[in-house]
Amino acid sequence: MRALRAGLRRLAGLFPDHRRERELEAEIESHLQMHVDDNLRSGMTPEQARRDALLKLGGVEPTKEAWRERSTVPFLEHLLQDGRYALRQLRQHVGFTATAVLTLALGTGASVAIFAFVDAALLKPLPYHDPSRLVGVFETVELFPQSNLSYPDYLDWKRMNTTLASLDAFGQTGYRLATDAGAQPASGARVSDGFFRTLGVKPALGRDFREGEDLATEPRTVMLSYGAWQARYGGSPDILGKTVVLNGDPTVVIGVLPREFHFAPVEPAEFWTTLHAEGGCDLRRSCHGLYGVGRLKDGVAIEAALADVKSIAQRLEAQYPDSNRGQGAAVFPLADVIVGNVRPTLMVLLGGAALLLLIASVNVMGLLLVRSESRKREVAVRSAMGASSARLIAQFVTEGVVLSLAGGALGLVAALWAMRLLTRLIPANMLGAMPFLQDLGLNPRVLSFAGVIVVFAALLFSVTPVLRLSSPGIRDGLAEGSRGSAGTLWRRLGSRLVVLELAMAMVLLVCAGLLGKSLYRLLQVDLGLRPEGLVTLQLAAPSSDYGKDEQAIALVRDLESRVRDLPGVQSVGVVVNGLPVGGNGNTTWFRVLGRPWHGEHNESPERDVSPTYFETLGATLSEGRYFTEADDLSKPRVAIINRAMARRYFPDEEPLGKQLSYLSDPPVPMEIVGVVEDVREGPLDAPIPPVLYVPFNQSTGNYLGVIIRTAQSGAALLPAVSETVRRIHPDIVIVAAQTMSERIDLSPAAYLHRSSAWLVGGFAGLALVLGVVGLYGVIAYSVGQRTREIGVRIALGAQPRSVYELVLGEAGWLIAFGTLTGLALSVAAATAMSGLLFGVRSWDVPTLVGVALVLGSASLLASYLPARRAASVDPVEALRTE
Amino acid sequence: VGDKTDVWQGTLALMVLKTIETIGPLHGYGIARRIEQTSGDRLSLNYGTLYPSLLKLEQEGSITSEWGLSENNRRAKFYKLTRAGRKQLEREAHNWEETTSILARFLAPSEDPA
Question: Does the predicted model carry a pTM greater than 0.95?
Answer without folding.
Answer: no
